[in-house]
Amino acid sequence: MPFSHHSHSGQFCEGHAKNTLEDIIQTAVRQNMRVYAVTEHMPREEQDFYPEEIEANGTESGLIANEAAFFKEAQQLRSKYPSINIPIGFECDWVRPSSLTWIQNSLAKFRWDLFVGSVHHVHSVPIDFDTPFYHKARQISGGTDEQLFADYFDAQFDMFKALKPPVIGHFDLIRLKSDDPERSFKQWPTVWEKILRNLDFVAEYGGILELNSASLRKGMSEPYPKAEICKEFLSRNGRFCLSDDSHGIDQVGLNYHRVLEFVERVGIHTIHYLEHTPSQLPEPFDGRFPNTRVESVTLEDLKKFPFWTQAP
């Protein structure tokens, strides 16, 4: 809808996205977005670099410098475009338990407004990059999607316990490269139990589950997470926000009309969103982010926003 809590640019996510950060924000402004969070990837260990980073001779120090440059640029753009609220954050990469140190370092360096808690690796192998990597991770898990899914949700639970992310990124990303991305998780009782455990934990500490439209542009019929997961989180009084997970201007707000239809079908009546505030709040929604507040809008009021006449 007119909010997104998860985005990337080619300027600071080179090889993985396109267009400058300002291009992305200008597009969000033209679409009458109300809130557009910018959340580039955090630095990672060199052993976890993606193929394009290796080919570009990337270094850990280069990623650390990139993060600093991103934060500076994002602050300047927030001042330049006051008509849109721009929370500044990052997307964490939980690769293994030692990732916690890297994430804590990022959290300590800058005055962030949020971070998106994501898992892109299982057994230190990326599970959403391409099919060969996915198959490698699956083989390590024991050779089946069911076993890999179980390991994914265990890794996710470890991340939740260590970090309590304010926004949960693409909760069921693991299905992207699987044999059947549309399969019901309920077919695997052990996996389903782990999903419910994770949802219980997120609901208990007040994390917000993003409805991520990226899965739709990748050929799936539902956003991340699937309807069956959303209904369980809804029954726990869980809160939902919206994200386009854009990697370029052509993906800003993409498929949000389909997300709206999904929201109505699932029975979600309230959407939450985070806003950056210029002064410290007496009661911020998360003590780590004193300049961030959580707001909400009913689905009926959301439909009245001018975004819907201009979004792709």
From TrEMBL:
Catalytic activity: L-histidinol phosphate + H2O = L-histidinol + phosphate
Domain PHP: 5-214
InterPro entries: Histidinol_P_phosphatase_HisJ (IPR010140), PHP_dom (IPR004013), Pol/histidinol_Pase-like (IPR016195)
NCBIfam families noted in UniProt: hisJ_fam
Protein name: Histidinol-phosphatase
A GO CC annotation given for this chain: cytoplasm
BP terms from Gene Ontology: L-histidine biosynthetic process
Keywords: Amino-acid biosynthesis, Histidine biosynthesis, Hydrolase
A GO term, aspect molecular function: histidinol-phosphatase activity
Family annotation (Pfam families): PHP
Family, similarity comment: Belongs to the PHP hydrolase family. HisK subfamily.
Group of enzyme by EC: hydrolase
Pathway given in the UniProt record: Amino-acid biosynthesis; L-histidine biosynthesis; L-histidine from 5-phospho-alpha-D-ribose 1-diphosphate: step 8/9
